[in-house]
Amino acid sequence: VEVEAYIGEDDRASHARFGRTDRNAVMYGPPGMAYVYLVYGMHDCLNVVTEPTGRPAAVLVRALEPLEGLSAMRAGRADHVRRSRRSANLTARDRERLAAVPDDRLASGPGLVAAAMGIDRRATGTDLLDPGSDLRIEAGSRAGRSVAATPRLGIGYAGEPWVSRPWRLILADSPSLSGPSRGRGGRD
DNA sequence: GCAAGGATATCG
DNA sequence: GATATCCTTGCA
Asked: Which nucleotides of C are covered by protein (CB under 7 A)?
């Protein structure tokens, strides 16, 4: 329900802005592949490579609206907390906080999408269009819900005009958009 | 408001 | 090899 587009080496917000590197190599390959990177040392972010081979581009998946597999998503969130705690067990406080997360906020941010889905950098290169892949994109419908476009988030370093490009696309009425309180009528 | 956290790209 | 920075989150 929330994605951002990054396209070309000209896009100063894109990982391709420095040209091809070990990290972003998959962005230069065929479309439909997963590109997962680690940001801020603790969060994995899922991207879908787009554009034909040779043209670096990807779409960052920033939020999902959970429909099924809710308990698995909660388990994924719990695993992520355990990893950050470097502990085999959660504290009582951790369990309280996790239990307080509403179903529709289980994946309301790019790092949370990966945590809830159990995705990390090892998924890079997965063919998301192959029905045999564990991680894949399947046909769906947005059932007439309206799409809105806004500037991308967290890319101030890119400068204009990239900061203002309306390349974040959202299902405007979703309660699952990223951010602290978007679910209860946030700014966007 | 800000610390945590580790990889990355770049500079010396 | 050292360092500044990062497509974030959840705390105080």
From this structure: 5-11
